[in-house]
Input
Amino acid sequence: MTKENDLIIPALKAHMGDWIYYVTILKMEHVAEMINIAEEIHTSKVLRDMIQRQITARAKQISGYLINQPQRFFNAIVVGVYGGSPDWYELAINSNPRFSLDTIPNEFEGIIGFLRFDGSQTLYAIDGQHRVKGIRQALKENGSLNSEEVSALFVAHRNDTEGMERTRRLFTTLNRYAKPVSKSDIVALDEDDIVAIVTRRLVENHSLFQDKISLAKTKAIGVKDNRSFTTIITLYDVLDILFRERGRYWNEYKRHRPNDDEISRFYENSVQFWDTMAGNFTAIGAIRSSQPTENVAGDHRHRQGGNLLFRPIGLLIIANVVRKAKDSGLSEKEAIERISEVSMEISKRPWVGLLWDKVNQRMINERPHQKVAKNLLYLNIGGNLAHMKTSYEKLLQEYAGILKRDKTEVLSEMYQGPTWKFHQ
Output
């Protein structure tokens, strides 16, 4: 017999391994009122506090997502139940002229029904703690979300040592084997991240990238790829560097789709950047005006070296220097023009030995090398090294150390003054 305060929800009964679980839906108001955070699976107050801190850090982001995103959607919350078992009511299915019981496989018997919670049970999130707390915060600001529904999986839990160990194992397994969304998936599918949106538009519409960009899932570009200017991941990262807005929580901003005007502004700025690059670097201009089948990229990226701009590391270094120059008051156009005066041939100074291994004919990916290359380039366009948190003497010492040469020997090959001019 049901009571007025009982919670009755439709469910599918299922099993996996030695777990029996129920697939259900819950209104958000019930999630907020009934589901606790999974602190109870740890007896240690320190561990409970650690979980609480981690959850609080993300709950605000999820709350904002629920309030601001009309196309909101969650995957299932996994809910542990202890302190009493909910009642399971199996539904009986009768034959009718359109549906015969003979057509139902035997393994489907007994899986459709209702769960009844009478209030004696304690519910807590094994997986989905951030979502539970985010839902609570969102409902405080927007009560219209109360009746929206999320999916939930209920599993039984025993409140003893063995039961808690079993539940902790499930908790860690769910988190360990839940694969994070890859950057390539974000670029391909995300309709909220403005950088991903603009990246896709460039790939579809800009002549520099149409059928001339690698769709590899990493920044690295294949050694035999003579067609692609760069990779789509590198393009995303370059735009992320250039357009990250100061004073704004950028990662949080990318979680919510901007209005169409703002997206158009970002896209126009990105087109302007790449058009300026193509106008100042002959190699980029050449690939922009070429047909994909001409394989122009192969002329600028090969085993003997080629052009720094056709290497993902090089593009990212240049993007960082352009961004730093803009933050320091230089226009984007002026920064690119100054960079274009520097030799981009990676088999020559200053890149050989720093970013290009001439003996093994491969790029050098170590971060200290990239840092020195970025600082050298910034210095060469007239940048103040204090903006890079370094100095002329320190940079010279680091550069000479990487090349395994004496500082005076390195200086003799360069013009010594307020800036270093790399020989063309």
Summary: DSSP finds 16 helices and 14 strands in the chain. The first helix runs from residue 28 to 34. Residues 242 and 323 are 6 Å apart (CA to CA). Residues 40-44, 415-420 have pLDDT under 50 and may be disordered.
